[in-house]
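One-letter codes give the sequence; each number marks local geometry. A record appears below:


***
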Amino acid sequence: MPRLRVSMSNPDSTDLQRAEADYQALIEAHQTLLLSTVTADGQPEISYAPYVRDQAGRFYIFVSELAGHTRNLQQQGWAAILFIRAEAESRNPFARERLVLKCRADELSRSDPDYGEMLARLEQRFGDTVALLKGLPDFHLFVLTPTAGHYVVGFGKTYQLELPAGRLSPVLPPG
């Protein structure tokens, strides 16, 4: 993917459109998301989960009660997710391209109309593993709805993500 070159002091609409396409491509380049949650006693935990995404930009994950993040999602109802460019594809480890989203986390009950559709999409994307897991009673389907976010392309190239529209606005350096 071509690297974004944007003058953050005066980005034009073409630069912003390219950045919007690039952050969407970063998401699509991953089958899993990095998941940050908080325990009941305020301790941070990080994990990952395979996902599917709907047309509204929400992420669906199917996770086990045996994983700490499942309990954290049930108790706290919030998470942060991260998509980051691989180190091997990045010029500088201090300036890796990344998208961070703060998300509301809601568990879908098995009777929810979206439950079957999202499990079918997970099974289509990930195959027999999901077919096996969906029969286990300790797995839960969560929808992660982004509420805020930021996209970092490199040094001094940061955008605030305006939700729910998914539009970017540059974060200008102080001064």
In short: The chain has a mean pLDDT of 90. The longest helix spans residues 13-28. The CA atoms of residues 119 and 134 lie 8 Å apart.
